[in-house]
Amino acid sequence: MQKASEAREVLVLYYSHHGSVRELARHIAHGIEQTPGMVARLRTVPKISAVCEATEDAIPNEGAPYVETRDLEECVGLALGSPTRFGNMAAPLKYFLDSTSGLWVNGALTGKPAAVFTSTTTMHGGQESTLLSMMLPLLHHGMMVLGIPYTEPALSTTREGGTPYGASHVSGSTGVTTASEHERSLAIALGRRLAEAAKRLAS
Question: pTM to 2 decimals?
Fold first, then answer.
C-alpha cells in the first residue's frame, strides 16, 4: 500500500463568492481521491479591491488556505474553478494567474494535466465561455487541458450544469449552492479523470 507521504497531489484551486464553486471543488477533490495514490490539495485566492487600503486576512476565515506559488510547482495536476463574471472568470482568480509569469518562464506547469469548473446563476449565464477563458492561461503554461467525455452518462441527460468543457453548476435565482445529482457526478468524474491522467503522466 502506498504511504501517505508518497501520494501525489492534484491542486484544486478556486475562487468562490457565495459557495457554489467551493461546493464543486469538494466534489472534484472527492473524485481525485478515488484514484489510488492521489490526493487533492484545496486552495483558494483572496478577494481583490479597487481601494488600495483594503486587505484580506493572511488566513481565510473559512474554507481552503490561500494558494502559494509552491502549490503549483508541487502539484502533478490542476483543477481551476471560478464563478462566472459576464462570461469570464472572476477578477481574483485572473489577478492571481497574471502573477504566475515566473512559473511560465521556468516551465513549471508544462506537461501537467488540468481541468476547469464554474458556477452561474442562470442556465445560459456564460458557463461555457467562462470555462474556455480559464483554459487560455493554462494552455500558455503548456498544460494539457482535459474535459468531460460523453461516455459519462450524466453529460447527455443533465438539465442543470455539466459541459464537455468542464464541470459546472447552476445556482438559480435563489442562489442554491448544493450541486444536483448530475452536477455532482460530473464533478466527481472530472476529478477522477484528472487524477488518473496525472498519475499516468507523473509515472
Answer: 0.90
H-state helical runs in the chain: 20-32, 69-74, 91-97, 101-106, 127-140, 153-157, 181-202
In the chain, domain spans = 4-202
- Listing DSSP states for 138-165 in one string gives HHHTT-EE----TTSHHHHH-SSS-BTT
Calpha distance 92→45 (Å, rounded): 7
pLDDT of residue 59: 63
**CA angle centred on 65, ends 64 and 67, rounded to 5°:** 115
Would you state the CATH architecture of domain 4-202? 3-Layer(aba) Sandwich (3.40)
E strand or H helix at 120, and its extent?
strand 113-120
On whether the CB atoms of residues 166 and 116 are closer than 8 A, the answer is: yes
pLDDT of res. 175: 78
What's the pLDDT at 53?
52
34 backbone dihedrals φ, ψ, rounded to 5°: -75, -15
Cα 190 to its chain centre, rounded Å, is 10
CA-CA distance, 169 to 183, in Å (whole number)? Answer: 6
Q: Cell for 121?
A: 446563476
The helix (run of H) or strand (run of E) holding residue 9 is strand 8-14
What per-residue confidence (pLDDT) applies to 43? 97
